[in-house]
Amino acid sequence: MTARLTTVPSAAGDGASPADGELAPPGGPASTAGPGPTAPPALAFDPADGIPQDDPWRTADWINRVGARTLAGRLGITFLEASPERLVATMPVAGNSQLYGMLHGGASAVLAESMGSIGAALHAGAGRIAVGVDLNATHHRAVRAGEVTGVATALFLGQTAATYEVVVTDRSGRRVCTARITCALRATRRKRTQGTTASPHTCTADSNR
User: Fold this and answer.
1) Which residues are catalytic?
2) How far apart are alpha carbons 116 and 3 in whole angstroms?
3) Looking at residue 21, what DSSP letter applies?
4) In whole angstroms, how large is the CA radius of gyration of the chain?
5) 122 to 42, 125, 133, 179, 183: CA distances (angstroms)
6) Which residues, listed in sequence order, are joined to residue 166 by a DSSP beta bridge?
7) Bridge partner residues of 152 (DSSP)
8) Are 140 and 177 in contact, with CB atoms under 8 Å apart?
9) CA-CA distance, 25 to 23, in Å (whole number)?
10) What are the φ/ψ torsions at residue 133 (nearest 5 degrees)?
């Protein structure tokens, strides 16, 4: 998803809290974890070009195709709407659960960071990249089937940083997770000319989870 959506370490474990305060017993019923959908051919993307912004729905379709082979694509995350101010995406529970059969808290964190990072990249525009610098998530209830929906809303859109709140809900509209992500906005690095030695610590293109 991949306008330089850089992952930073975040404290998200298997986080989802059990519904009604009860844990399914270890070894009990778990959600079916099957392989994700077959990814369509990925499109080439140069971060320096920015993400096309025809309209929120066409932009979402472009993101889905470019990010088909990223972590977000492997988790089955599908963007439905994408603009600098608001993003909407879904993610299946199947294949993204933990041992108790509940949606893994880390999967909710991936959904949140993917959405916030793309929103920040859209805000940054061509010639700049968005890199995640902070992510926190609170898990409210368990989900064992179906899909969840994330809605990312911009809280701050500045020249050097962007912050989003991401609310994840289940198919009944109940809040599953609340997350906040902040991204730093930086200028893209020009491609080095032939014969120039790159620093081993230089990274000009990161994949989105």
Assistant:
1) 113
2) 11
3) G
4) 17
5) 19, 5, 17, 19, 12
6) 152, 179
7) 87, 166
8) yes
9) 6
10) -125, -15
Residue 78 has pLDDT above 60, yes or no: yes
How would DSSP label each residue in 108-166? HHHHHHHHHHHHHHHHH-TTEEEEEEEEEEEE-----SSEEEEEEEEEEE-SSEEEEEE
What is the distance between the alpha carbons of residues 126 and 3, in angstroms, rounded to a whole number?
Answer: 10
Q: Which residues pair with residue 136 across a beta bridge?
A: 180
Partners of 195 in the β-ladder: none
The per-residue pLDDT for range 128-170, each reduced to its tens digit, is 999 999 999 999 999 999 999 999 999 999 999 999 999 999 9
Q: Identify the DSSP state of 16.
A: P
The per-residue pLDDT for range 33-66, each reduced to its tens digit, is: 444 455 455 555 666 677 878 789 999 999 999 9
What's the CA gap between 115 and 113, in Å, rounded?
A: 5
Distance, in Å, from the CA atom of 101 to the CA atom of 12, rounded to the nearest integer, reads: 17
pLDDT > 80? residue 91? yes
Query: Which residue do the tokens 């659960």 mark?
Result: 97
